[in-house]
Every structure is written in C-alpha cells, then in structure tokens.
Amino acid sequence: MAVPRALLAACLLVLALRGAAAQGGGGGGGECVPQLNRLLACRAYAVPGAPDPSPDCCAALSSVSRDCACSTMGVINSLPARCNVAQANCSA
C-alpha cells in the first residue's frame, strides 16, 4: 500500500510544481519541472489497486533530486491554505 501513496505523491509533485513555476515560485522550480514531468509515467499507478509500477515510472521517480522533491512538497503543503480549504488529515 505504500507504493501507491508514494506514486500519488509523486504525481501531485508534478502538478504542484507546474503551478509554482507558472506563478513564478522560487525553489529552483525551473530545474525541477523536467524532472517532475517525467513522473507522468507513473500516473496509471497512482490509484488504489494499481499494478506494480513500470520500469519507466521507477526510473522517473528515482531521477527526482532531493532538493526538487522537498521544495515541491513545500508547495503542495501550502496549497490548501492558498486555496482556502482544509488540509487533509491522512493519519486519521
């Protein structure tokens, strides 16, 4: 079950960073966009019950740098407040 959550997070990274780059967000967004665009190979595996990810997906996921992943997670974590919606509590 951990793999689909990780892949969902990876796909969310793509969306969040594209939004940050379009808005002129900092954190090296321009350098991250190509890395995160490759994660589109993972989109079919980001749903419950999906099969194991393809080699292309795994290669794309492993090519995302730590700095890119961490800065993008910051963007994702800021989206609920910026959209004026409650953050999801996934631990409950």
Question: Can you give a write-up of this model?
Answer:
This protein has 92 residues and is an all-alpha fold. It is built from 4 helices and no strands. It has helices at 2-22, 29-37, 55-62, 66-83. It is 61% helix and 0% strand.
Q: Which word captures the global form?
A: globular
Rg (CA only): 13 Å
Number of helices: 4
Biggest beta-sheet profile: none
In short:
Helices cover 61% and strands 0% of the residues.
Spell out the key features of this protein.
single chain; 92 residues; mainly alpha; 61% helix; globular
Annotate the secondary structure layout.
Layout: H1 2-22, H2 29-37, H3 55-62, H4 66-83
